[in-house]
Amino acid sequence: MTKLKTRHIVETLVWLLTVVVFFVYSFEFNQEIEIYKFGATGWPRVILGILLLVTLGNFLHLYKKGSEAQHGRVGISDQEEGISYDSIGSVQKLVAILILPFIFSWSLKPVGFYAATPIFIALLILLLGEKRIKWILANTLFIYFLIILLFMVLLNAPLPQGNVSPFYDFSALMLTLNTKLHQSLNF
């Protein structure tokens, strides 16, 4: 028997409608780009495809298990934990989490995407409460690898390189490696 409720169906339909509307709208700016073989709509359509997969996966999960708390899942409980902002430390942590993306975006011009991104990922993981250095490094490298794979290799999207040494030199190294990879794979 299904555990779907009307709100689950409405939520899924809203997400599906969002994907369809943006996909149809993507034909408005579908132009070829000389240095990018997938055109101007390449990466937006990849994001829409990921959103579609997540929406369908969420619907399947809701269909099978519903949205009630499930016993044995880490971080899930019937009792809601109260979040307290009484101490100055918790307020500072919240402010730091909210300001960090702005600092990251500001640093893209001088530092560049390739050098700023792993620092941003590691700092965000730290701010979210992880204290084990091996986990922070492993997760940072994994997420960074996925982002580089998506934007550099699959989408071949130009990313900010930075203009301050040694960050610019690191960006140049990454672009050189990407060029050699594309040439070896005949992209």
Secondary structure blueprint with pairings:
Blueprint: H1 6-25, H2 42-65, H3 88-107, H4 113-127, H5 133-154, H6 167-185
Question: Summary?
Answer:
The chain has 6 helices and no strands. With 187 residues, it is mainly alpha-helical.
Question: How many β-strand stretches?
Answer: 0
Instruction: Specify the oligomeric state.
Output: single chain
Kindly state the percentage of residues in helix: 55-70%
The biggest sheet amounts to: none
* Total DSSP helices: 6
Radius of gyration, in Å, reads 21 Å
Strand content: under 5%
N- to C-terminal distance: 48 Å
Overview of this protein structure:
The protein has 187 residues and is mainly α. It folds into two domains: 1-68, no CATH class; 101-187, no CATH class. 64% of the residues lie in helices and 0% in strands. The chain is built from six helices and no strands. The chain starts with 5 loop residues before the first helix and ends with a helix.
